[in-house]
Specification:
The structure holds two protein chains of two kinds. By secondary structure, chain A is mainly beta. Chain A folds into two domains: 41 residues, no CATH class; 316 residues, 7 Propeller (Methylamine Dehydrogenase, Chain H). Chain A contains one helix and 32 strands. The longest helix of chain A is centred in the N-terminal third of the chain and has 7 residues. Chain A is globular and about 50 Å long. The two termini of chain A are 27 Å apart. By secondary structure, chain B is mostly helical. Chain B has a domain of 142 residues: Leucine-rich Repeat Variant (Alpha Horseshoe). The chains are: A mainly beta, B mainly alpha. Chains A and B meet through strand 25, strand 28 and strand 29 of A and helix 25 of B. Chain B: Keywords: Cytoplasm, Membrane, Nucleus. Chain B: Its main location: cytoplasm. Chain B: It is found in: Cytoplasm; Membrane; Nucleus. Chain B: This is Telomere length regulation protein TEL2 homolog.
């Protein structure tokens, strides 16, 4: 089949094909003449040409428990091996070598309590992990060591993940859900001195997800928090004040991510919808867009570094990819057989080697290569 | 001066003589002018005493002479101006009562001629020129002359019945001005003019009597013209009485002077027309306290006996009672009477639902009007009313009565204990309940009558409230979005670089796997704790039951037992329907065993009413399924007789047995799709006959249900308090009867059913009575006609008398309608069986379950 020419009329593009009807002739074909010319709307033609679904690049098994969280560490891979840290429900943090696709080491520091969150501090040798034993542990992994150097008592029994913000001069800010169910504590690392405690006046329920953000212009760091009542709030850490609040879900906010470039964020809840919102000049939040899902429940979502796509981990065992610009649905990846708990994008230096990983309750971590060609 | 009367008499006689004899037009006009001078002389030409004398004794005679000479030759000789000035003015300037009487007499006695036309012309002038108001005003002046009650009566009846009198005489030639639609508003206008003059006279210190006017109003109302009269009178009067006390007094006097026998018409007419309690209060005054009849009408008849009136009338009536301190005790009295009716079991059972609604409304309005101190004072009685009334209403099997009871009970308890514990029910908020609840807050008593409002304030659009503006402001954010989207639409192609993958497989996430075998399904339903699995099993049950009848028969009774006891533990969507469909298909598949089980369980211990109702519903639906002709897909090539029990429809699940599709069918379909027919008529749907599957088993459904009804159990007393189930049972029996049409056993069934319903045909619950009537019509439809008259003739005769009785006298409207239909059916059957001995089956009749 040959594309003969295309034309556009009535605001619609058409393509004229020569030769036999295409094999995917699902739509109505209009015969131009008896010589084998076919016209069909361009969009339909594109839809019919949609790419077949990709399969995972590879899958890691062997955590022995549902995978709760993932963290890539792939920079400078010329010198170092690319690593992936995964935290699972049996309390172990696995360090995966992505070149050999095998476990480098297993860190057991939370006494068997589920690991909620892992993150590296600046380099691959310093790791921070949060477990449900109410502790946040600091690890020293340099030169093959695997020792807990320090730990913080979080006192929070919820499932809310911590958030880490790198500040210059070897300091970090760590936002931790507080002992008081509604509060969030912010600490300075490594000194562990409390910076502030943020507690909303209204009853919003527990914080469900946190994200620290350092705006370029202002000196004061800000904190995004999603609450149990479905609202997303923005806090100013230095003034300890609530800047803005948006009730964007009817159910608890399960996860949120924010794009500082466009001042636009996205949140998912246990509902059948993903909502995106914007922050305007007056620091007030406005609901912008909403995407309807087929099945309810988003456990985690993540915007890729290049801000082109958004990935969501769904309770319906599926990973969804959406174009970040307009939240256009791009793909529904099906591999897992249980709830997908987390998604993460790798930080490879070479863009087209970037991977997306997803960890699921079915104890597997799947790796996908999607939209890497520019 | 005794020469006065004589002079007048002489002049009149001379005048009459001239008119009767003279042929000279100048003489005639002179005579007419002379007579006219007595009526409208400018100066003292005829002295005042002579004029009075003329009006009193000679005027009528002159008029009679004139009307008897309507065809006189000189009338044609007069020019139109002379005719108007001299002749017509004689009628228009004199005392109007005499003119009216003479004219009406003349119209009555005159034959159809130009003379009659002339008199009608005069009468029309008379009405147009406002002579009626002069007449009415004349009757208001001074004390009524004692000498002429007959005259007054005659005048009264003629005034009120003028359209009728004229219509009797003129038949269809009556003029528009004399038709009731024109005449009564005119009369009302003239009446208000007379009242206005009365007011003026009262202000000037002259005594007036409103007796005649009140009689006129009363008589017009009692003859059914109250609506037209009050339609004109009430808006004027309510506008005038608002501020003016003299007007108020005149209105009160007017209402109070209405004779006893006409009081009801006036009061009820007023109450219906007046808008708002304040206006009603200023029109009626305290007549309710002064007049026994008015009191009876207002506090009793309009509230407790009649129920056709609209809610605003109730509000203004009760508001009227509540407005004045003197009338307040009457409000309490009314409240007690309403409470008594509301809480009376017999009233709840026997009065139509519309009346109950009306009484509930009145009760709620009363509650809204009551002061807290009054509530405290009568707390005990109200509490008693609430307790007994709630019980009566909740015992009723009609949902609407239930709801009424709940709404009123809630409001009562909230009023009795504003802060404390109160009744709370769960009911749907439909328009009726919302209306009822809104009645609790009384409308503003001081409503502005619409006349005083500036007329264009109604047509103006309501000013934008700040809240709506705010909403628009809010909408501004999403409104900005399309623009933004549009701008990003221009970037469409740049976003398109991310080609979407195929997303067609993104479907709903299925839960647990559906069971494949009926035994798995049974197991899941009995023992599974997984909501998804139970849900899927329940959904799959019907298909499984139909797919493998042989396997189903092995577990049918067990499965139906499980289904009957299944509870909606997981709040499954469509639970009731799924369960019911599964039970119905079980019954259809294994009829004998399952009906045996269900019919015995219906009368056994320890079932809830809901379960018993479910059993009845399942039996009825199964009967319907069985009686429907099977889809003619049972391959005609296989000559085996269709089995007694088979899947209801093989068409519905073609994919289940796609492989089993006969090759012949496939070939036929292909040939059909390649064949083109010209001039093809209507598609031939040769509905092949097949024996009814219900006929052989109808008895198994029917007779066990009839066997035990009079043996009360501890938990189930069919003839006692469980009349809802009784109603459903009778209805179900009727349904079974209907589906047993053309079955051999139908006659026995009909006989048994008639015997059964005969005992309960006067049941107090309308639901049961409706069931009985339905069952009777089912019998009429299903039993073959000739059998009916051979074996059931006595019953039919009795039933006919009873149906006639019900159609006339039953308080429930549905019952009456059903009885009428049954009666019609019966008559039709009678006629048919007398006319032609070969009766037809009622196959064409549609029946709704």
């Amino acid at each position: 089949m040959l594309l003969y020419y295309s034309f556009s009329t009535d605001g619609m593009s058409y393509a004229v094909f020569y030769s036999a009807p295409p094999s995917f002739s699902t739509g109505p074909l209009l015969s131009l003449s008896q010589f084998g010319f076919y016209v069909r709307p361009w969009r339909e033609w594109k839809a019919a040409m949609a790419l077949p679904l990709p399969d995972p690049q590879f899958v890691l098994r062997g955590t022995g428990a549902p995978v709760n969280t993932l963290h890539f560490c792939c920079r400078n891979q010329e010198q170092d091996k690319p690593l992936l840290f995964s935290g699972s429900a049996n309390g172990a943090v696995h360090v995966w070598n992505l070149r050999t696709r095998r476990t480098e080491s297993v860190l057991e520091g939370h006494g068997g309590a589920s690991v909620l969150w892992v993150q590296t501090l600046n380099s691959r040798d310093a790791l921070i992990s949060q477990g449900r034993d109410l502790r946040v542990c600091m690890w020293d992994l340099a030169e093959g060591r695997s020792v807990v150097t320090d730990s913080i008592l979080t006192e929070s029994v919820g499932f809310c993940q911590c958030s880490l913000l790198d500040r210059e001069g070897g300091h970090w800010l760590l936002a931790v859900p507080g002992a008081d169910m509604a509060a969030v504590r912010v600490l300075d690392l490594p000194s562990k001195t409390p910076v502030c405690t943020l507690k909303p006046d209204a009853n919003l329920g527990m914080p469900m997800c946190l994200k620290l953000w350092q705006p370029d212009s202002g000196s004061s760091p800000l904190l995004w928090a999603g609450y149990e009542d479905g609202s997303v709030s923005l806090w100013n850490l230095s003034e300890r004040s609530l800047l803005s609040r948006l009730a964007c879900h009817a159910e608890p906010v399960m996860s949120l991510d924010f794009d500082p470039g466009k001042l636009r964020g996205v949140s998912g809840s246990s509902e059948k919808a993903i909502n995106s919102w914007t922050l305007d000049g007056q620091q007030s939040l406005k609901l912008q867009d909403s995407v309807e899902l087929v099945n309810p429940g988003i456990s985690h979502l993540c915007i890729r570094e290049d801000r082109r796509i958004l990935a969501t981990a769904g309770w319906d065992h599926r990973i969804r990819l959406l174009g970040w610009k307009k939240l256009k649905p791009l793909a529904v990846l099906q591999y897992h057989t249980d709830v997908v708990q987390c998604v993460a994008f790798s930080d490879h230096d070479v863009p087209n080697k970037r991977l997306m990983a997803a960890g699921s309750k079915d104890q597997r971590i799947s790796f996908w290569s999607v939209y890497n060609q520019i | 001066m005794d020469s006065g009367p004589l002079a007048v008499r002489l002049a009149v006689r001379q005048c009459i003589n001239t008119l009767s004899t003279s042929r000279d037009i100048t003489e005639v006009t002179e005579a007419l002018r002379t007579a006219g001078r007595y009526l409208s002389g400018t100066e003292d030409d005829p002295p005042a005493c002579q004029r009075e004398e003329f009006a009193r004794t000679h005027y009528t005679r002159l008029l009679q002479f004139l009307t008897s000479n309507l065809n006189a030759h000189w009338l044609e000789l007069l020019t139109p101006e002379q005719h108007m000035d001299l002749w017509v003015s004689l009628f228009l300037n004199g005392p109007p009562d005499q003119v009216l009487l003479v004219l009406l007499d003349c119209v009555n006695s005159c034959s159809l001629s130009s003379g009659l036309e002339r008199s009608l012309d005069v009468l029309e002038y008379f009405l147009q020129r406002g002579r009626l108001s002069a007449l009415l005003w004349a009757t208001c002046q001074g004390p009524p002359p004692a000498n002429s009650p007959q005259l007054r009566d005659a005048l009264l009846s003629r005034l009120v019945a003028l359209p009728d009198l004229l219509a009797n005489r003129l038949q269809e030639h009556t003029r528009p001005a004399f038709q009731p639609l024109h005449y009564y508003p005119l009369l009302a206008r003239e009446l208000s003019v007379a009242l206005e003059r009365t007011c003026q006279a009262l202000r000037d210190g002259v005594d007036c009597s409103l007796c005649f006017v009140a009689q006129l109003l009363g008589k017009a109302c009692v003859q059914g013209h109250g609506k037209e009269m009050f339609g004109v009178l009430v808006p004027r009067l309510s506008a005038l009485t608002q501020s003016d006390f003299v007007w108020k007094r005149v209105c009160w006097q007017l209402v109070e002077s209405v004779p006893e026998r006409w009081m009801e018409g006036v009061v009820s007419g007023l109450v219906q027309t007046v808008d708002g309690s304040a206006a009603l209060s200023s029109l009626l005054g305290n007549v309710v306290l002064k007049n026994k009849k008015a009191q009876f009408v207002i506090t009793n008849k309009l509230l407790l006996l009649q129920y056709k009136y609209k809610t605003p009338m109730l509000q203004s009536l009760l508001g009227y009672l509540a407005q004045d301190r003197g009338r307040r005790p009457l409000l309490i009295q009314v409240l007690k009477a309403l409470c008594g009716t509301w809480s009376s079991c017999s009233a709840v059972k026997h009065s139509p639902i519309e009346q109950q609604l009306y009484i509930s409304k009145a009760l709620l309005i009363c509650l809204g009007l009551l002061r807290d101190s009054e509530v405290l004072e009568h707390r005990e009685e109200l509490l008693q009313c609430m307790l007994s009334g709630m019980q009566c209403h909740l015992e009723s099997s009609i949902p609407r009565v239930h709801r009424l009871g709940m709404v009123v009970g809630e409001s009562l308890s909230a009023r009795l204990d504003p802060g404390g514990t109160r009744l709370q029910f769960q009911y749907e908020l439909d328009t009726e309940t919302k209306e009822l609840l809104s009645l609790l807050s009384p409308p503003p008593a001081h409503q502005q009558p619409p006349e005083t409002l500036p007329p264009d304030s109604r047509t103006e659009p309501p000013p934008k409230s700040p809240s709506s503006e705010r909403e628009e402001g809010k909408a501004g954010v999403p409104a900005a979005r399309p623009i933004k989207q549009h701008s990003s639409d221009s970037e469409l192609d740049s976003d398109d670089e991310l080609t979407p993958y195929d997303m067609t497989r993104d479907g709903e996430l299925g839960g647990a796997l559906a069971p494949r075998y009926i035994r798995d399904c049974l197991e899941a339903l009995t023992s599974s704790e997984d909501p998804g699995k139970v849900e899927v099993s329940l959904g799959a049950a019907e298909g499984l039951i139909k797919k493998n009848p042989a396997a189903t028969r092995e577990v049918s009774v067990e499965l139906v037992k499980v289904l009957l006891h299944l509870e909606d533990r997981f709040n499954t969507q469509g639970f009731l329907r799924l369960r019911q469909r599964a039970m119905v298909s079980l019954t259809v598949t294994d009829t004998l065993a399952v009906t045996g089980y269900l019919t015995t369980e219906f009368y056994s211990l320890n079932y809830s009413l809901r379960q018993r109702l479910d059993i009845l519903e399942v039996l009825a639906l199964a009967a319907q399924d069985l009686s429907q002709p099977t889809s003619a897909n049972s391959a005609p090539s296989s000559h085996k007789p269709p089995p007694l029990i088979q899947p209801v429809s093989t068409e519905t699940a073609p994919d289940l047995q796609g492989t089993a599709q006969h090759w012949r069918q496939v070939v036929d379909q292909r040939i059909e799709s390649k064949t083109r027919r010209f001039g093809k008529g209507a598609p031939r749907t040769g509905s092949s006959a097949s024996p009814s599957r219900f006929a052989p088993v109808a008895g198994c459904f029917f007779f066990p249900l009839l066997s035990n009804y009079d043996r009360p159990q501890v938990t189930f007393d069919l003839l006692g308090s469980d009349h809802l189930v009784l109603g459903r049972l009778v209805h179900t029996l009727g349904v079974l009867m209907y589906f047993a049409v053309n079955a051999p056993v139908a006659t026995q069934m009909g006989k048994a059913l008639l015997d059964f319903v005969w005992a309960i045909r006067y049941h107090t619950d309308p639901v049961v009575r409706q069931g009985v009537l339905f069952a009777v019509s089912a019998v009429l439809l299903s039993v073959p006609n000739e059998r009916m008259f051979l074996e059931l003739s006595d019953e039919m005769l009795e039933a006919r008398a009873w149906l006639g009785d019900v159609a006339e006298a039953d308080p429930d409207a549905d019952c009456r309608g059903l009885a009428e239909q049954s009666l019609l059916l019966l008559e039709k059957i009678l006629k048919k069986s007398i006319g032609s001995p070969s009766p037809l089956g009622p196959n064409g009749q549609a029946l709704q379950l």
